[in-house]
Amino acid sequence: MTAQGPATLVIERHGTASLRSRAVSAGVRRLVRPGLARFAGRPFDELALRRAALIDRLAARAGTPRRVRVEKVRLDGFGAEWVSAPGAAPPRDKAILYLHGGGWISCGLNTHRRMVASFAAASGATALSVDYRMIPAVPFEREVEDCVTAYRWLLEERDIDPGRIVIMGDSAGGHLTFATALRAREEGLPMPAALAALSPMLDMDLTGKLAHANMGLDPSDPGALLERLVEGFLGHLDLTDPAISPVRADLAGLPPVLLTAGSTELLYCDSELMARRLAEAGVPVTLQVWDRQLHVFQMFGPYLPESRAAIAALGAFVRDALDG
Fold this sequence. Notes:
Blueprint lengths: L8 E6 L4 H22 L5 H14 L9 E6 L4 E6 L10 E5 L9 H15 L2 E6 L11 H14 L8 E6 L1 H15 L7 E5 L8 H4 L12 H11 L23 E6 L5 H13 L4 E6 L14 H19 L1
Parallel strand pairs: 1-9, 4-5, 4-6, 6-7, 7-8, 8-9
Antiparallel strand pairs: 2-3, 3-5
Helix pairs in contact: 1-7, 3-9, 4-5
């Protein structure tokens, strides 16, 4: 597609990091960082993948948050669930299509239910959270297929107007948010009202990230883990292929986009680059930069002031997109 000329790029800088969020970052640096380093230092064999999959099963023990309604859905070969919170409109009116993160190998409906519910409450829209098949059930390049199937189901089976759907995801799910929209466009499906991505990884070529100043600033130090993921699961692919790295795709014709990331997280540079390329392609885009926040800090919900503010901002973006 051909761009219609540059669009406005809005950069919102949110600072300064609260004392509470800085304490959480220090805890991650001390307690989580060594575990990630050990995980990255081991081969991604069958045992490692089983351990990664265990995270979502353990998260199920937390149960469903109070006043949140969950309705299971079975699609073609995979599952999903409707997540609604008080005040959310029924899914026949408008919906969020939510794609969870987890490095394409872990997490799922259970790990993300509480955060997805917070987005539903903030936006007034019920969310369809997708339990798309992951590595090793399908290779990396096929994970997007279930996401497109879920989007098509909303359009054709639930008869929801595309202008009343927002596709949203975090981290790996942020990658899938763009991959889904681009694949949907390729298949002739109408575009949703908007896209929102939280700390997405959008360029699988790690050269720029590993040379970025945030390599030394990200409290979790995920560089080695990203190298292991790419080496283990994308080694057979061309990392510069736009189908693999959405930041390299023809972005013209995509709907308005919200990108949000912490200023010191390693994946910040992907959001920064994508924001610039979207604007060049004529796509309205807002980039929210949150001072020294962790990767997908929205996961902390009510416990951090930045998480509360970011969730409210995401909700406002979705409301504006769906309500005109």
